[in-house]
Structures are given as structure tokens and as C-alpha cells.
From TrEMBL:
The chain crosses the membrane at residues 7-25, 69-94, 115-140, 174-195, 202-223, 229-247. The gene is phnE. It comes from Aphanothece hegewaldii CCALA 016. Residues 65-244 form the ABC transmembrane type-1 domain. This is Phosphonate ABC transporter, permease protein PhnE. NCBIfam families: PhnE (TIGR01097).
Length: 257
């Protein structure tokens, strides 16, 4: 009986620790439930300003959306190409500790910078427009794609790499013939996921003038033309949902392979 009760002790302690963490987090937020309750009606009033949608701006919404998709395609591609060498030097089954540390430091640094800050940096460097947003998405993508690719590389079957080492294959040949063919379907799935995310992120970067549908969207909201803004949001919702559905199907096919 004593041993059985002792086996539950770690779980009990973990449960108490989690409860303590949530209590600490809730108290730190200083949530006023009365404010939340009263805020519901103000949200309803705010949202009512967005209806009915003004379909006269639909052509402009589609044009801005195409720019957003173009930004995401190029930005994700830039991120994918630059992520691969960083992932390789970060993987523990390919690189010495010094290179691993450098690769992971690059990843962590890029992931710690919000995409909107990167957009501000590029806007200040090359001016307003989609080019700044595209570069911001590309650099932002590196931090995540490199991590995804790294995990895919580290999950490769070790026996296949050892077989190549026995034959005298170089480090580059091991990466080229032993790892890349195995991780390609998984890496493509991660890249598609990042493309989906960048569609959404690109719509936000317009807030700081980095192109895409977000610039027009924020302009209409700030100008109290919210029925026009709702048209942009509906178009964005339809396209993002469609891309999410299509890429999910494609990722599933890649996973099956």
C-alpha cells in the first residue's frame, strides 16, 4: 500500500505545481471580471459597424490579396532556401557542437524577433511596400523552418547514415544522399505550413506599411469605413480557408509517401 501511494506522489506534486502556476498567472493578469462582463456590449457595438459589407471595394480587395499571396510565396521560398544550411549545421547527427551552437543561436535569435519588427526594419531600410514585407517574411520564416528541418534531420534513421560513413562518404554526401531524400516529404509539409502562416502574417505587416491586404484593411478601420474593411476580411477568410484546406490535403499526401 505504501509503495502504491508513493507512486502517486510525483503526479500529485506535479498537479499541485500546475495549479500553483495557473493561480500565479491569473493573479498576475489582474483580470477584472466585471470589466469583461460589461465589455461584451461594447464589442457588439464595435462589430456592428462592420456590417453589411461594402462589396464595391471587392476588386481592390482581390488585388491586395494577390499581392499578399505573392509576398507569401517569395518570402516562404527565401526562408526555405536559407533555412536548410542552418538546419544542417544545427543537427546533432551531422555537425560538431560548435556549429550546432551557432545554428541554434541563429534560429533562436530570429524566432525572438516578431515579424512586424522585421517589417519595420525593412521599411526603414528600403521604404514602404510589398518588398519590405516580403523580406520580413523570408527572414522570419528562417527561424521556424530551420527548427522544423533540424528536427526532421535528427529523426533520420541512424543506420542509413552509418552505412554511408562505412563506404567512405563525405559529410556533404551524407547530407545529400542519406538525409535529404528521407526528409524531403516532411520538409515540404513544413514549408507548406509556413506558407499558410505567412499568408496570415502578411496581412498584418500592412499595418506598418509593408504591403499586402493589411495596409488597406487598417486604413479603412482607422478611417471608420468598417463596412469596406469587412469585405477585405471576408475575402481573406475565404482565401485562407481554401489554402489551408488545399495544403492540408497536399501535406497528407506527402506524409503518406
Amino acid at each position: 500500500m505504501l509503495k502504491k501511494s508513493q507512486s502517486y506522489l510525483p503526479s500529485l506534486l506535479l498537479g499541485l505545481l500546475l495549479i500553483g502556476v495557473y493561480i500565479w498567472a491569473w493573479q498576475g493578469l489582474k483580470v477584472d471580471l466585471n470589466t469583461i462582463k460589461d465589455g461584451g456590449k461594447y464589442i457588439a457595438v464595435f462589430l456592428s459597424d462592420f456590417f453589411p459589407p461594402n462589396w464595391q471595394v471587392l476588386p481592390l480587395a482581390l488585388e491586395a490579396l494577390l499581392e499578399t499571396i505573392q509576398m507569401s510565396i517569395i518570402g516562404t521560398t527565401i526562408g526555405a532556401f536559407l533555412s536548410l544550411p542552418i538546419a544542417i549545421i544545427s543537427a546533432h547527427n551531422l555537425s560538431p557542437y560548435g556549429l550546432q551552437f551557432l545554428g541554434n543561436l541563429i534560429q533562436n535569435t530570429l524566432r525572438s524577433i516578431p515579424s512586424i519588427i522585421l517589417a519595420l526594419i525593412f521599411v526603414s531600410a528600403i521604404g514602404l511596400g510589398a518588398t519590405a514585407g516580403t523580406f520580413a517574411l523570408g527572414i522570419y520564416s528562417i527561424g521556424y523552418l530551420a527548427k522544423f528541418y533540424q528536427e526532421a534531420i535528427e529523426s533520420v534513421e541512424a543506420n542509413s547514415l552509418q552505412a554511408l560513413e562505412v563506404t567512405g562518404a563525405s559529410w556533404l554526401q551524407i547530407a545529400q544522399y542519406g538525409i535529404l531524400p528521407q526528409i524531403l516529404p516532411l520538409a515540404l509539409g513544413y514549408t507548406l505550413y509556413m506558407f499558410e502562416y505567412n499568408i496570415r502574417a502578411a496581412s498584418i505587416l500592412g499595418v506598418v506599411g509593408a504591403g499586402g491586404i493589411g495596409f488597406e484593411l487598417v486604413s479603412y478601420i482607422n478611417g471608420f469605413e468598417r463596412t469596406k474593411a469587412s469585405t477585405f476580411m471576408i475575402v481573406m477568410l475565404v482565401v485562407v480557408t481554401t489554402i489551408d484546406w488545399g495544403s492540408s490535403k497536399l501535406r497528407q499526401k506527402l506524409a503518406d509517401r
